[in-house]
Design goal:
Length: about 400
C-alpha cells in the first residue's frame, strides 16, 4: 500500500495546479464528484461516444472492399454480413443516444460502444482461425487482431476515473484472451505474451490520458463555477445546479427550498468605506452563512450583494429554522463595528405549489423585498402573511 500511495502521489505531482489535494479522490472514483462535474462529464462522454460510433459506422463497411479483394468468397461473405450487423448497431447507437443525459446513460453508451466491436472481434477471430490463409490474405487477416489495440487507444478520448478505465481496459484484455482461447493449441506463447504486454502498456497510456482529461475538467470547472471574489458558486453555475436539483426533486418528489438573501444597507458600506471594504464584507458572508448550513446546501452569489441559498430535500419548516439561525448568529461586523444583517425571502416547491426553480426564485425575491420594506434583518416566507421574524437583531 505504501508503494502504491507513493506512486499515486508521484502521478499527481505530474499535474501541478490542476487537482487540489482534497480532490485527488475524484480521479479514482466517480462517487466523489460534485453534481456539476457529473453533469458535464456525462455530456462529454455521450458526445465522444457519438463521434466514435459515427466513425466506426463509416469505416466498418468500407473494409468489405479489402476483404473482397483478398479472402475467399465464402469467408468474405460471412465477414461482410458481420460488418453489416456491426454497422447497423453503430448507426442505432448514434440515433438512440440522448442529446443530454445522466451519468448512467453515459455508462450504457460506452458499454454499448465497446461491446459492438468486441463481439465483432471475437466472431471474426473465430471465422478467421477456421481458415488456412496464405500470402496477402494471411496478412489482412492479421489486421483483425489489431482491433483490441484500437479500442484501448479509444479510451484516451474519454474523461474517466481510474476505476472506470480499469473496468473497460480489463474488458478488452479479457476479450483478447478469450479470442486466443478458441485455438489455444496453435498459439505461440512468446507472440501471445508480447501482444498481451503491448495491450497492457497501451491500456496504461490510455488510462493516463483519460485521467489527464478528467483532471483538466476538474480544474476548468473549479475555475468557472466559483465566484472569484467570494468563493461561492457563480450565477451561471448556480443556474445549472438549480436545474439539476429541480430534476432530482421532481423525479423523487422531494422538497426543494430556495432563499433569496440580500445584505441590508450594503451600498452605504461602499459609499462610506470604499469598495475594498465592501469586498471584505462579501467574503465574510460566505463563511458566516456556511456555519449554519448542511453539507448539501448550495450558496450562490446571484449578483452584487444578493445571494441565493438552495436547500435540497428541505421543506419550508426546516429551511425556516436554518435561516432563523443565520439571522440570529449574524453575518459578522460592518466596517463601522455594527452587526451586518440581511433580508431573506423563502420559497419551497411543495408549500408554494410550484415546480419550476425560476418561479421559486421569483417568489423568494418578492418576499425578500417585503422583508426590506419591513425594515430588514428578517425572514419572510409568505407575501400575504406577517414576516416570520419581525424583531430586529440589532438596534438601528
Amino acid at each position: 500500500m505504501r508503494i502504491a500511495n507513493l506512486l499515486w502521489q508521484w502521478l499527481l505531482g505530474l499535474l501541478p495546479g490542476e487537482v487540489e489535494p482534497n480532490e485527488t479522490g475524484w480521479l479514482v472514483s466517480p462517487r466523489l464528484h460534485m453534481p456539476l462535474i457529473v453533469f458535464r462529464r456525462a455530456q462529454m462522454i455521450l458526445n465522444r461516444v457519438r463521434l466514435f460510433a459515427s466513425l466506426f459506422a463509416v469505416l466498418t463497411p468500407l473494409w468489405v472492399l479489402v476483404d473482397v479483394a483478398t479472402f475467399p468468397m465464402a469467408l468474405w461473405l460471412r465477414l461482410a454480413a458481420l460488418r453489416l450487423v456491426a454497422t447497423c448497431a453503430f448507426v442505432a447507437l448514434v440515433l438512440l443516444l440522448p442529446q443530454h443525459g445522466r451519468l448512467r446513460h453515459a455508462y450504457r453508451a460506452m458499454i454499448a460502444l465497446f461491446a459492438i466491436p468486441t463481439v465483432f472481434y471475437l466472431v471474426s477471430h473465430l471465422l478467421l482461425t477456421q481458415q488456412h490463409l496464405h500470402g496477402s490474405a494471411a496478412a489482412i487477416s492479421a489486421g483483425y487482431a489489431f482491433l483490441p489495440f484500437v479500442l484501448l487507444a479509444g479510451l484516451a478520448i474519454f474523461p474517466l476515473t481510474l476505476i472506470e478505465t480499469a473496468f473497460f481496459s480489463l474488458a478488452v484484455l479479457g476479450a483478447n484472451m478469450v479470442a486466443y482461447a478458441f485455438n489455444w493449441g496453435e498459439v505461440s506463447l512468446p507472440s501471445f505474451g508480447a501482444q498481451l504486454w503491448l495491450l497492457m502498456l497501451l491500456a496504461g497510456v490510455a488510462s493516463l490520458a483519460s485521467l489527464s482529461q478528467l483532471a483538466f475538467i476538474i480544474a476548468l470547472v473549479n475555475q468557472t463555477i466559483h465566484d472569484p471574489l467570494t468563493g461561492m458558486f457563480s450565477r451561471r453555475s448556480g443556474e445549472e445546479l438549480l436545474e439539476l436539483q429541480q430534476s432530482y426533486a421532481l423525479r423523487h418528489n422531494t422538497p426543494l427550498s430556495i432563499a433569496f438573501v440580500d445584505l441590508d444597507c450594503f451600498k452605504r458600506i461602499n459609499d462610506d468605506f470604499g469598495h475594498e471594504a465592501g469586498d471584505k464584507v462579501l467574503k465574510q458572508v460566505n463563511r458566516a452563512i456556511g456555519r449554519n448550513l448542511r453539507h448539501g446546501d448550495i450558496l450562490i452569489r446571484w449578483g452584487g450583494e444578493e445571494f441565493l441559498l438552495v436547500m435540497p430535500n428541505t421543506d419550508k419548516t426546516q429551511a425556516r429554522q436554518a435561516l432563523l439561525r443565520v439571522l440570529e448568529s449574524g453575518l459578522g461586523k460592518r466596517p463601522d463595528g455594527d452587526t451586518l444583517t440581511c433580508s431573506i425571502g423563502l420559497a419551497e416547491r411543495h408549500a408554494d405549489r410550484e415546480c419550476g426553480w425560476r418561479a421559486l426564485v421569483d417568489m423568494a425575491d418578492v418576499r425578500m423585498y417585503r422583508a426590506k420594506r419591513e425594515g430588514g434583518n428578517r425572514l419572510v416566507t409568505e407575501v400575504e402573511e406577517e414576516p416570520v421574524m419581525n424583531r430586529p437583531l440589532v438596534t438601528p
